[in-house]
Write a sequence for this structure.
């Protein structure tokens, strides 16, 4: 029965990696096709990864809590085979004996084992199924070295796998098999930097020393090879241009027709080495802090790795991994805040009429099984504002030097969950009724808290609402859900003192008010537009009958 | 044991000397194995004797005559006369030269050649009957065998190839005169190649086809160009019609009767009827079940990616092992079979097998179409270069068709190509190389191509897919 490796599939749009939260199976367990084997938390959701095979779990390659890039092998299965005839024949010594029993040259058969049969018995490397972007020579080498081509990281354009990649993978497998459990952070050695990372592991032929010249004690800049002529594919040459590297300077141990042959990997490694050499010149290389990694070892390999080079946590501190949803939120916030100059406009709407309208509609909604909150009213009021001030419903595309004014009104609703902030999107708010919106928001929020949103349900927003007032507070400075242009924060609706005129005299009276905090991307809109937008929204909240027009 | 039966032994027994078998035998011998090739008819198989090569000879001959007689537009006036007997004689010369070349190559590589019909006796023994009855036979003990028995044209009820006026493709490639009226049953690639050939030789050609178009596996815009050109050459089509029978006509010719699914009948006056409805595997007389090998319900032998049958030490290659029934696929399988037997890490791991149809204009395809790429989960990007924008195409007077290249939008990897037009069969080789090498659109576009050539169109199509074409409007 062949062993099949299974890679972390693409679990959602644009998701590059995920944290393997928990294994649902253990080695030796029977699994059926489509049975969930692991839970993976990606940037956007918690997803179950189903098995592609019927069979038995052979090995788990990833520990719980580890971050796994999409495409990495996470588990292997011993797979059932439909007919299994060929394997039985090879595995069963009796049938092999029968085959040769009657034939006269049986002796030679036994003396010289059939190489084909030997192949099968001894885990014959599978031919890569599906499309592999590797030349025939690399595919054949992969079979020869028993390498699963699909597991090889290609260094060529688009991830094309070269013979060198296959060799490097094979060497990596051999070297890494024993120390997979080691917690030590691998300390980068000058040799690896100088000769191009893992490529150095596979140097075999034509070593001219030029690539090794930087293997001395000081990590200097790699020596330019300075050839007169170099063979490289057009794509490799372009990469070299992009990285500002002269292909004639790139060290290589490969030749074609007697000429030095440079691959994209060589170019990348050389450029990386140049970069790190430059960095080394300007700053002293941080020394791996051995003692710290040892201290942190209890927290697992990742924590130990992160601790190296950083200040070690005090003994009593607790370290929490910065990963998955938390890290995605962090990256998204960082990008928004450092990209879009925020300005936040505050105002307060007096919402007596809104409170009445909602109270009046609530029983009707309940009769329809809908819990009516203020959110649908606010959403409708926002749409009214966006229609009058389309720049708040836009996206700045810097690369294209254009601002896209969105014609759809898809409102993201920020939802606080145990895992962190989630922003499901209600599409086409302008086309939906209050009850419909109420039901949809409730459904999305519930599923967000249960981590059951699909990634698609969190995409496509054009404007976001955050109702921090549900927890408490009046004003805030919300961060825009980049690349949107604006976000509206809602405080709590409470009775607050307002000044009103009665019988020609001003007096302070309690009235229900809704504090609003509108953050905008000042690159796209100015404060005046923000204020006008806020006025339109407030007008619709203070006179909810106007919403009938929406 | 039969009288006159001599037992010999071999490491690799190859049964069938076509492009799968002879290639396997030569490679096995090159690998240092003792190889024996059994052929019952003619070295080179259907490809050299009754298929690829003879048809291309006649296609070239008829094409030359037609071109010469239709070049007034470039100031050439001629009215060529075709001596069909002489053309077939020339074709036979080409075939002889190639088949004797195969025989010599086998011998020079140390392959033992045996003429006769092989049958399995058990898993390690075959009997070879030499020629006819009483010619004697021999038993061959083998360690490994490669079945390469090929295929033959399918015969349909009511149309017996034994009749003089009912042709298979073999007879159509061996006729000493051109029939006045030729009815062709089947609009696949064999039917269409021969329809074009005979139309250019002056026959009135009618193609009846059960489906609603010619060349079933190809895309509509590819089919349309070939069908239009055939119609210009005077080929008539009866689509949706199945051939039911033939009868004698009062004029000394014959009537080809057809019937639609709805029962609508038509008749066509013809002098010869070519039946080209496909090919079926040849395993009769082979007794594969004696070696423990089953054939499927269509007679094919099932194999794995190393060309092994269910009985590990017996391989099957070429048409008998099923689709694609193409000579170059057979040769690749033959090489893999021999290398696997020799213990090499060979396998059928190609990304694509190109195919060519030698109609006018030609079709060359390889890899995925846009639709197939989508179905495989790629986000395909497509580039095209019409030949009417190619300088070289204009100077050949053949501007129908286009080069289309299909790639993965994200990575740029070339996934497929569809070419219809002049020399499409040659041009497709570049796209095939790109696919196998894992080349990107950029690689193809940035490779300098000779000007003025048709091959530039491949580069242009790649540029077009990248939105950077110079000679076409980028889409």
């Amino acid at each position: 029965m062949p062993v099949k490796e299974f890679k972390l599939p693409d679990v959602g749009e644009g998701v590059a990696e995920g944290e393997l939260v928990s294994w649902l199976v253990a080695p030796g367990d029977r699994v059926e096709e489509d049975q969930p084997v692991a839970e993976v938390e990606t940037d956007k959701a918690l997803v179950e990864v189903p098995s592609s095979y019927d069979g038995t779990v052979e090995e788990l390659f990833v520990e719980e809590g580890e971050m796994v890039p999409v495409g990495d092998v996470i588990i292997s299965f011993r797979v059932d085979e439909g007919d299994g005839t060929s394997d039985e024949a090879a595995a069963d010594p009796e049938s092999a004996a029968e085959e040769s029993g009657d034939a006269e040259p049986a002796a030679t058969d036994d003396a010289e084992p059939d190489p084909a049969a030997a192949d099968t018995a001894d885990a014959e490397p599978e031919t890569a199924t599906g499309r592999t972007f590797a030349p025939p020579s690399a595919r054949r080498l992969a079979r020869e070295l028993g390498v699963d081509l699909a597991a090889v990281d290609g260094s060529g354009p688009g991830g094309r796998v070269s013979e060198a990649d296959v060799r490097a993978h094979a060497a990596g497998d051999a070297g890494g098999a024993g120390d997979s459990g080691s917690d030590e952070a691998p300390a980068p050695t000058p040799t690896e930097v100088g000769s191009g990372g893992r490529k150095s592991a596979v140097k075999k032929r034509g070593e001219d020393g030029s690539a090794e010249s930087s293997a001395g004690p000081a990590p200097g800049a790699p020596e330019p090879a300075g050839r007169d002529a170099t063979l490289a594919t057009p794509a490799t040459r372009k990469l070299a241009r992009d990285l500002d590297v002269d292909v004639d300077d790139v060290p290589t141990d490969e030749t074609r027709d007697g000429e030095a042959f440079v691959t994209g990997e060589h170019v990348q490694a050389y450029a990386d080495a140049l970069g790190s050499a430059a960095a080394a010149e300007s700053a002293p290389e941080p020394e791996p802090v051995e003692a710290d990694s040892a201290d942190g070892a209890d927290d697992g390999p990742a924590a130990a790795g992160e601790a190296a080079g950083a200040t070690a946590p005090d003994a009593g501190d607790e370290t929490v991994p910065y990963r998955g949803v938390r890290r995605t939120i962090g990256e998204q916030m960082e990008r928004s805040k450092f990209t879009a100059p925020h300005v936040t406009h505050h105002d307060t709407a007096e919402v007596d009429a809104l409170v009445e309208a909602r109270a009046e509609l609530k029983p009707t909604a309940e009769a329809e099984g809908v819990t009516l909150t203020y959110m649908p009213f606010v959403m409708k009021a926002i749409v009214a504002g966006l229609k009058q001030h389309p720049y708040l419903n836009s996206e700045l595309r810097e690369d294209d030097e254009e601002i896209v004014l969105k014609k759809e009104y898809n409102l993201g609703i920020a939802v606080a969950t145990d895992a962190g902030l989630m922003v499901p999107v209600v599409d086409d708010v302008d086309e939906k009724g209050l009850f419909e919106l109420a039901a949809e928001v409730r459904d999305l929020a519930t599923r967000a808290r249960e981590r059951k949103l699909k990634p698609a349900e969190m995409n496509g927003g054009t404007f976001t609402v955050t109702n921090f007032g549900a927890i408490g507070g009046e004003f805030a400075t919300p961060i825009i859900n980049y690349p949107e242009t604006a976000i509206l924060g809602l405080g709590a609706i409470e009775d607050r003192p307002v000044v009103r005129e009665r019988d020609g005299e001003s007096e302070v009276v309690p009235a229900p008010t809704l504090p609003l905090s509108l953050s905008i991307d000042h690159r796209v809109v100015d404060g005046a537009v923000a204020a006008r937008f806020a006025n339109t929204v407030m007008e619709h909240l203070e006179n909810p009958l106007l919403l009938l027009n929406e | 044991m039969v009288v006159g039966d001599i037992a010999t032994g071999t490491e690799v027994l190859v049964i069938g000397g076509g492009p799968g078998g002879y290639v396997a035998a030569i490679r096995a011998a090159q690998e240092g194995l003792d190889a024996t090739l059994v052929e019952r008819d003619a070295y080179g198989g259907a490809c050299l004797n009754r298929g690829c090569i003879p048809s291309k000879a006649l296609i070239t001959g008829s094409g030359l005559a037609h071109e010469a007689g239709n070049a007034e537009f470039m100031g050439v006036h001629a009215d060529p006369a075709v001596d069909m007997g002489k053309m077939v004689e020339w074709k036979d010369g080409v075939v002889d030269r190639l088949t004797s070349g195969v025989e010599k190559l086998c011998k020079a590589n140390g392959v033992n050649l045996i003429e006769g019909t092989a049958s399995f006796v058990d898993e390690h023994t075959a009997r070879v009957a030499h020629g006819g009855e009483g010619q004697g036979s021999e038993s061959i003990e083998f360690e490994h065998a490669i079945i390469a028995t090929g295929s033959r044209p399918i015969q349909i009820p009511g149309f017996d190839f034994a009749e003089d006026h009912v042709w298979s493709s073999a007879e159509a490639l061996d006729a000493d005169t051109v029939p006045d009226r030729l009815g062709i049953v089947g609009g696949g690639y064999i039917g269409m190649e021969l329809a074009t050939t005979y139309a250019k030789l002056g026959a009135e050609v009618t193609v009846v086809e059960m489906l609603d178009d010619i060349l079933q596996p190809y895309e509509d815009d590819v089919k349309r160009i070939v069908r239009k050109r055939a119609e210009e050459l005077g080929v008539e089509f009866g689509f949706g019609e199945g051939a039911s029978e033939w009868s004698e006509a009062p004029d000394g010719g014959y009537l080809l009767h057809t019937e639609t699914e709805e029962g609508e009948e038509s008749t066509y006056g013809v002098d010869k009827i070519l039946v080209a409805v496909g090919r079926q595997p040849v395993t009769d007389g082979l007794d594969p079940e004696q070696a423990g090998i089953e054939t499927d319900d269509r007679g094919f032998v099932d194999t794995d990616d190393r060309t092994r049958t269910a009985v590990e030490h017996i391989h099957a290659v070429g048409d008998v092992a099923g689709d694609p029934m193409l000579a170059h696929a057979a040769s690749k399988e033959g090489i893999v079979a021999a290398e696997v037997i020799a213990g090499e890490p060979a396998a059928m791991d190609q990304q694509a097998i190109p195919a060519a149809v030698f109609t006018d204009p030609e079709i060359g395809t390889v890899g995925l179409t846009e639709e197939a790429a989508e179905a495989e989960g790629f986000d395909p990007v497509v580039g095209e270069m019409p030949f009417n924008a190619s300088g070289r195409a204009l100077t050949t007077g053949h501007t129908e068709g286009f080069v289309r290249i299909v790639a993965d939008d994200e990575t740029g990897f070339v996934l497929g190509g569809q070419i219809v037009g002049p020399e499409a069969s040659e041009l497709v080789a570049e796209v095939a190389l790109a696919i196998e090498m894992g080349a990107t659109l950029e690689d193809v576009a940035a490779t300098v191509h000779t000007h003025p050539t048709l091959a530039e169109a491949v580069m242009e199509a790649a540029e077009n897919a990248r939105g950077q074409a110079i000679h076409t409007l980028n889409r």
Q: What stands out?
A: Chain B has 13 helices and 22 strands. Chain B has three domains: 6-153+280-341, 166-277, 355-465. The interface with chain A takes residues 9, 122-125, 141, 143-144, 304-306, 308, 310-313, 340-343, 345-351, 376, 408, 410-413, 415, 436-440, 442-443, 446-447 of chain B (CB under 8 Å). The domain at 355-465 of chain B is CATH 3.30.390.30 (Enolase-like; domain 1).
